[in-house]
Amino acid sequence: MTIMPVELALDEFIQFPVDGITDNSTTDFELFLKISDHCVLYGGSGYKWYRRELTDLLKHGIDQFLVRPEDHARADMYRQLAKLPFVEKNLAPRERIVRIEQIGAEFTKCLYNGEITQACIEKASDLAGSMIDCIAEDPTCIQALTGLADHDYYTYVHSMRVGAYTVAVAIEMGLTDFSRLQEIALGGIMHDIGKKEVPIEVINKVGALTDVEWNQVRSHPSQGARLTESSQLSLVSKEIILHHHEKLDGSGYPDGLQEAGLLTEVQIATLADVFDALTSSRSYQQKRSRYEALDFMRHKMVGDKLADEPYRALVSCLVAE
Ligand SMILES: [Fe+2]
Ligand SMILES: [Fe+2]
Questions:
Q1: By residue range, what is the domain housing residue 28?
Q2: What's the CA angle centered on 276, arms 308 and 304, to 5 degrees?
Q3: Are 43 and 88 in a shared domain?
Q4: Is 79 domain-assigned?
Q5: Are both 158 and 218 inside the same structural domain?
Q6: Which ligand neighbours the alpha carbon of 163 most closely?
Q7: What does the pLDDT profile of the chain (321 residues) look like in tens digits?
Q8: In this structure, what CATH number is given to the domain that contains residue 166?
């Protein structure tokens, strides 16, 4: 606890309830306490919370902190994320992965509508951890994910499914290191975050895009890289965000990289992204079945655009009984 008087009029602060803070979380904004007629800093940005301290505060009648106006957006994001439910661990993998997809979609929605804060990265890491545990238990559980979603919801569930497919492929290819899997899962969950900078009418447009609109869409990997540049995401996660639209033959964007320039983790995420796009109904396309999508990929993309080994790993997760 840090006590520090602050020169700011009391009415400029915004209230933040103590019971809005969750156990084992970090607040990425400053929290003040009102003591008589002035304000003191209680916890600086990065303060780690445990249940005991929160209970003690409430026991002593302290139920409100104060937040500076410039921290309002961060505090609001923290509060929204704190309301998201936890994944029930006792569910069977196929039910659990669907639950992770649903909670993750709500999380991604918050992410698209607010600032990307440290609290967001923590929540994404939690979800990534649950995703890895679930898929490591049964990699075929991803069969329970379908491409069903209405337009607006698509972007949110798509991100989670790409995360799940990416993890399943990586595990199937023999990766067991949890922190590496978590970097991959985070890359998958956040891969399209740059789309929050593209107008929603363009994302959901039915019919051909104009050159300007197409350029807006194609800017999303670079926008995502810019938005997450100063975050604590790892290099692997950031590479997935920036290069998930590259293709092995150099025909992708934004950098036209070829196979040698693309990390295996990025190649896996690209494959997962294509698979989910093909198996989802969108404004401009009919949903393909899992088998039609795999067949299309094998004939049109695997080898020159998409990597073969991750493709085979995806097939074995999806067709295994
Ligand atoms: Fe994308
Ligand atoms: Fe995507």
A1: 5-72
A2: 30
A3: no
A4: no
A5: yes
A6: 2
A7: 555 555 566 778 899 999 999 988 889 999 999 888 888 899 999 899 999 999 999 999 999 999 999 999 899 999 999 999 989 989 999 999 999 999 999 999 999 888 888 889 989 999 999 999 999 999 999 999 977 666 668 888 999 999 999 999 999 999 999 999 999 999 999 999 999 999 988 887 878 899 999 999 999 999 999 999 999 999 999 999 999 999 999 999 999 999 999 999 999 999 999 999 999 876 556 678 899 999 999 999 999 999 999 999 999 999 877
A8: 1.10.3210.10
With respect to residue 134, please indicate whether it lies within any of the assigned structural domains. Answer: yes
39 Cα–ligand 1 center, Å: 45
What pTM did the predictor assign?
0.89
Assess whether 68 and 92 both reside in one domain: no
Q: Tokens in use for 181?
A: 């899997």
Provide the number of structural domains found in the chain.
2
CA 319 to ligand 1 center in whole angstroms: 26
Residue 26 CA to residue 47 CA, distance in Å, equals: 5
Residues 20 and 124 in one domain: no
CA dist., res. 232 & res. 162, Å (int)? 21
Same domain, 155 and 88: yes
- 169 and 299 in a single domain? The answer is yes
CA–centroid distance, 269 to ligand 1, in Å, is 10
Neighbours of ion ligand 1 (CB under 5 A): 192
